[in-house]
Amino acid sequence: MRIIIVTDYPNINGGAGKVALESAIALVPHVESVHVFSTIGEVPPELASQVSISTLGQSKVTELPLSESMIGGLWNKPFSELLDGYNPADTLVHIHSWRDATTLSFVPDMIRRGFKFVVTAHDYGLACPIAGFYNERKQSACTLRGMSLSCVCTRCTNGQFVRKTWFVARHAMQVHRAKLPAKLKHLIVIGKLNEQVMTPYLKKSAKVHLVENPISVQPILRSEAETSDTFVYIGRLSPEKGVSLALEAATAGGFKIRVVGSGVQETELKAKFHNVKFEGWCDKEKTQEILRSARALLFPSLWYEGQPLIVDEAAANGVPVIVSDISAAKEAVDDYCHGLAFRSGNLDSLISKMRLMLDDNRVRDFSKNGHEKYWNDPHTMERHIKKLLAVYSEVLSN
What we know:
Helices cover 38% and strands 17% of the residues.
């Protein structure tokens, strides 16, 4: 079995990229060959030493002048030359991400040659033109059907309407030239909400496979969260993540809070919330240390999300969580019984849940629940690869 993995970046810059690249490395001992095809930037030498990888060396389409993104960003160079070296009978193409530069221009050629493929729905790019079912102007989840007349006519992106028009044009190319999701026979989802949102856009004959993302946490003793007095937010500082709501709640309720992360809102939030300790982006070890120092992790996201890894990591460490009820993070809370869900976007609801977390006995119970339930069936890379290989075998033999 030979595997070609398609992802925007040849380096880790987010959840989808992390899963794509780390799973590529982990697959190497189990298959005949693995090749990663990417689009943006240069290949890091440390990655090239572990797995075969190539990149087109392009830029993120949203950072290009409109004239350039209209050309290369809609339908960029296919990887036909890469396919020339593979046999469709024993090769599977696994598509992880294509939002930032990679387009699906290679799909028609891939299908014509008889290559089989599978897509992982890290986001909702198969259905929504901006991939997130999120209205940037209203700062709330979008319930419109992707590419419907209402969707196309709605100004849901910040900036000029031409930006939304560009996304619609790009998605139309995906639907009508790449024939996706119409030609998709196998889809990997990473959670129940993920599947629920995507299913209406698939053919009834399409097979959906649940393969949860791996969590990079080593076995560790439970954090004694009940001894802490500080809430923690870890993630991107951008509107859709709801971090501003979390800081408003902490300020109004008089709670201590630390923030790990950076993003477009960083300057604005630092100027507004002087009581908050901003840590910036930290390395893995420092982030884990801060997470374990928390009484509870706040995950106030305003959109659906996919599978928020940090919420699973909190369970693995024995850290309780407070999550928005609209996001996929609530699935983890239901599974691990390690926290509370508040009404998405509602300040009073979030404050009330934070106050409930002042009860030491409740926090201790949540901490024990999460730690015990996670380690009863940990989301290890080995577990992830075992499920991936089962899907790959089914796709190739179908």
